[in-house]
Amino acid sequence: MCDVVLLCRVSDGMTLVETNSETKSISHKLELKKLCKKLYSFPNLSTVTSNNFNYHFLIENGIAYIAVFPVTYPKKLAFLFLNDICKQFNEELMIQYGTHSIDYRSIIETIEKPYSFIKFDRKITKIKQEYKDPRSNIAIKKLNESLNEVSSIMKKNIDDILMRGENLEDVGRKAFNLKYESEKFKKVSRVLNLKYALYQYGILASIVIFFFLIIIFKNYF
């Protein structure tokens, strides 16, 4: 079961919405306060372990989605949970601010009041129930859907690579043909140059022979 869900602004750690379980401890609060001060240095997906709890982070568009789970809870499922929270919150932003050329990150940066999205905690609570038991049919179904999605992406990537491989073969074939034609062109060029040289020297030789014959004719006839 998720102990804490916290959405906050990355730039300054200001809380946008937070939900807690009945077992939330002071240590969670202190740890989150410390971590939220350095969110800017976190990668998009990360986990910090402290006191037998995992603090999972998903950062997107200037918002940190944080969930605290016991270390025994599957990490893959925890990040699927955060991903669902992120999707639902994006839908919430669309409802509140519209969808036409809206920069939601800029909107988040201009919010001055903490807990401005406190009403969103009801949706968080609903999603938490779906992930309450990692062995439930819903949780297993979500894992399978995620695995199928990953498999589809991998298959598509492999197909793209194979397709690029075919294209590379075509390019290689064209390059070979171009090289072959280039070699043929060089050979033809050499032959033409030789013929042109013979033609030039032939004319010169003909002129020389012509004058040589004239000289012989004058001297002997």
Automatic annotation (TrEMBL):
Q: Which residues cross the membrane?
A: 196-217
Q: Where is the V-SNARE coiled-coil homology domain?
A: 139-199
Signal peptide, first to last residue: none
- What's one Pfam family here? Synaptobrevin
Q: Does the keyword Amino-acid biosynthesis apply?
A: no
Q: Which domain of life is it from?
A: Eukaryota
Q: Which UniProt keywords apply?
A: Coiled coil, Endoplasmic reticulum, Golgi apparatus, Membrane, Protein transport, Transmembrane, Transmembrane helix, Transport
Which SMART domains does the UniProt record give? Longin
InterPro entries the record matches = Longin-like_dom_sf, Longin_dom, Sec22, V_SNARE_CC
- Tell whether Transmembrane is among the UniProt keywords: yes
* Longin domain residues: 6-124
Gene Ontology terms: cellular component? COPII-coated ER to Golgi transport vesicle; endoplasmic reticulum membrane; ER to Golgi transport vesicle membrane; Golgi membrane; SNARE complex
Q: Name one GO biological process term.
A: intracellular protein transport
- Record-level Gene Ontology MF annotations: SNAP receptor activity
Provide the topology term for how it sits in the membrane.
Single-pass type IV membrane protein
- Report the sequence similarity comment from the record: Belongs to the synaptobrevin family.
PANTHER family given in the database record: VESICLE-TRAFFICKING PROTEIN SEC22B (PTHR45837)
The protein's name in its UniProt record: Protein transport protein SEC22
What organism is this sequence from?
A: Plasmodium falciparum (isolate 3D7)
Question: Lineage of the source organism?
Answer: Eukaryota, Sar, Alveolata, Apicomplexa, Aconoidasida
